[in-house]
Amino acid sequence: MGAKPRLGVFKFSSCDGCQLSLLDCEDELLAIVGAIDIAYFPEATRADDTGHYDIALVEGSVTTLHEAKIIHSIRERSTRLITIGACATSGGIQALKNGADVAEFISAVYAHPDYIATLDSATPIKDHVPVDYELRGCPIAKHQLIELIAATLAGRWPRTPPHATCMECKRAGHVCVMVAQGTPCLGPVTHAGCGALCPGYARGCYGCFGPKENANTAALAARLAEDGATGRDIRRLFSTYNANAPAFRQEAQRHG
């Protein structure tokens, strides 16, 4: 039997939540460890970052010059580079600074702004190096991560359906919060994966998994306006975890 594939888990600017989803696999983690060599994973091991990786899981956005440089090293040493989570796939919540006066923000937040070194924008990994697959979510879903690893080891494409969160909502038998309560909800334009968690608690979808394929954000915005949402309301709704995802960013910009 040959050596097990080497897995590296890397963190850029993020909250750690997506890579911790690997530890949350619990029972499944034993099977994962049996199939792959977790060679680098700072959250769980003390191993140094050395050598080549068959699979590299990258969490977080690029927000510093150091990160912009190191991602190229990871790409060069990885057969498959997979981004996980909203930060790595769209820039994350920190991308709200894009286009704003970053120096003004730094001065307002930090007592010693001269200690802070950051880029003016937070960008997804794919803006810097080729990416083999993107796994959405804030955080990612455990079952999708397991499917992704299994599919990669088997040499097939992962089964992560591109349909809207509304599909999951209907399958779960949830009452539509927009129709029944007039609650703003991004479910019709958001990629499935969370199991319609928020609508299950009678709350609107916040778009944690980013825009679905061919998301008709204009139609949803028009419906929200009919229900009384102002331009500011709509802009804020599209400007959260995936504010820099093109479909959401463009819709937010259309509303001021």
> From the coordinates shown, what is the CATH architecture of the largest domain?
3-Layer(aba) Sandwich
Oligomer: single chain
In CATH, what is the homologous superfamily of the largest domain?
Answer: NADH:ubiquinone oxidoreductase-like, 20kDa subunit
Largest sheet: 5 strands, parallel
Structural class call reads alpha/beta
Average predicted local confidence, pLDDT? 94
Q: What percent of residues adopt helix (DSSP H or I)?
A: 25-40%
- Specify the overall morphology: globular
How many E strands? 5
Largest sheet: spatial strand order = 2-1-3-4-5
Proportion of strand residues: 5-15%
> Could you give the distance between the termini?
60 Å
Name of the level-1 CATH class of the largest domain? Alpha Beta
The poorly predicted ranges are: none
How many helices does DSSP assign?
11
Give the radius of gyration. Answer: 19 Å
Number of domains: 2
CATH fold-level name of the largest domain = Rossmann fold
Order of helices and strands: EHHEEHEHHEHHHHHH
